[in-house]
Amino acid sequence: MKLFENHNLKSYNTFGMEVSARRFVQLDVAEETPAAVAEYLQQWPYYILGGGSNTLFTNDFNGTIVHPAFHGIERMEEGGENVLLRVAAGEPWENLIQYCIKNQYFGIENLTGIPGLVGSAPVQNIGAYGVEVKDTIYKVQGYILSTRNPFELNNSECQFGYRNSIFKQTLKNDCIITYVWFQLSKIKHFTLTYQGLAKALEERELPLTLHSVSDCVRKIRDTKLPDPKIVGNGGSFFKNPVVPTEQYRELQVQYPDLVAYDAPNGLKKLSAGQLIEKAGWKGRRVGNAGTWKNQALVLVNYGGATPQEVLNVANGIIHDVKTLFNIPLEMEINRI
């Protein structure tokens, strides 16, 4: 465990905000978690920070940042059809993707290229190109901060929903995830419900393999999303809104090309990026912040942007989408 005072967080948030933390605690092994909780998280405000890819710091953090930095991917059980992996929270997500490709484990290849650490995946229930991580998570382990007790939640107990989980609700700011267990298939199968992915594979005349699917996903992402190492961003800034089918049909009269996907309970999930683009925000810049030229859903720091500049863009988008479509957009990113 390492402790730093007045620690610069620019390299710990993909927006590249120039902010600092009063205290920064780096956990090098999972077993250090109880000691860190007892010593540093009882009297100060705190925040658990993974890769910082879904976080917008709006100011310096006058408290303690806890950063899990422990790694490891372990095969716990393996049968003829499935494999059970225990993965440390501090393991980079892309490392797990590459491990699964190498070992021919199916289920998360569509999630290639998502920045961040494994411990953040269940919190957000990350998803892309027709796949959500909840469909592969077996259980999650960690510590409850308020009671200082360990926890272990199986898949159903995690209360997964669209970009949601118990870790964003009941356990928000009250737990540190140490390990995520994944149950993955050894039987060859792919999820190609996302039309753009299926089309890309067909056009390139590639055989269906973990490597080809992962490679296509990465190429699609690269055409739409900026590299945070070059242009600061936090990925998708807003959730895709879910609306009643009747409202979607009414909008479709005026906007025949409106994209929609079936959602639970007879609802329709719309494309937030398309709504933002139709509201005139794609590629628009206000000061040092704006939206990405190839994907309106991504807000970016063009260099030297302040948190307030990013929020001004976000609030402008929310206002215009609400005015044009009568649809309230909800931020997917965590504001700290």
How would you sum up this structure, described in words?
- This protein is of the alpha+beta class and 336 residues long.
- The protein has helices spanning 33-40, 93-103, 121-124, 195-203, 210-224, 245-254, 272-278, 307-325; strands at 2-8, 20-27, 46-48, 55-56, 61-68, 73-78, 82-88, 127-128, 131-132, 137-144, 149-154, 175-185, 232-236, 242-244, 260-263, 267-270, 285-286, 289-292, 295-301, 334-335.
- It is 25% helix and 30% strand.
- The chain has a five-stranded antiparallel sheet with strand order 6-7-12-10-11, with no helix packed on it. Strands 1-2-5-3 form a four-stranded mixed sheet. It has a four-stranded antiparallel sheet with strand order 13-19-18-17.
- The model has no long low-confidence stretch (mean pLDDT 92).
Show the helix and strand layout.
Elements: E1 2-8, E2 20-27, H1 33-40, E3 46-48, E4 55-56, E5 61-68, E6 73-78, E7 82-88, H2 93-103, H3 121-124, E8 127-128, E9 131-132, E10 137-144, E11 149-154, E12 175-185, H4 195-203, H5 210-224, E13 232-236, E14 242-244, H6 245-254, E15 260-263, E16 267-270, H7 272-278, E17 285-286, E18 289-292, E19 295-301, H8 307-325, E20 334-335
Parallel strand pairs: 2-5, 3-5, 4-20
Antiparallel strand pairs: 1-2, 6-7, 7-12, 8-9, 10-11, 10-12, 13-19, 14-16, 15-16, 17-18, 18-19
Helix pairs in contact: 4-5
